[in-house]
Write a structure and sequence with these properties.
Elements: E1 4-11, E2 20-27, E3 30-38, E4 48-49, H1 63-77
Antiparallel strand pairs: 1-2, 2-3, 3-4
The chain binds calcium ion (2 copies).
Region (Disordered): 40-60
Length: 85
């Protein structure tokens, strides 16, 4: 049985004063994919994702995968410390 693990990280790696949410998925300890979300309006609402990954494992990347990730990103973002400008 394989062990799947998801790691979520808040980090402003685009250096635009709005944190990105990075998702990394590990299978048995090995990174299988990574993707990130950003907030186009920099208001803490995540509406943009990076290059596609097949999050629901149905063989394609579509709006379902994107919606799943954005839901996770927006929930997780509430736990991130936000910089006040
Ligand atoms: Ca950013
Ligand atoms: Ca999919």
């Amino acid at each position: 049985m394989s062990q799947d693990e998801i790691r979520l990280t808040c980090e402003d790696f685009e250096k635009d004063n709005s944190p990105e949410i990075l998702l990394e998925r590990f299978t048995n300890g090995d990174l299988s994919y990574a993707m990130y979300a950003s907030s186009s309006k920099k208001d803490g609402h995540y509406d943009t994702t990076s290059s596609p990954t097949d999050l629901d494992n149905d063989g394609d990347f579509d709006n379902e995968d994107k919606a799943i990730f954005l839901t996770m990103a927006n929930a997780f973002a509430k736990t991130c410390q936000r910089k006040s400008n």
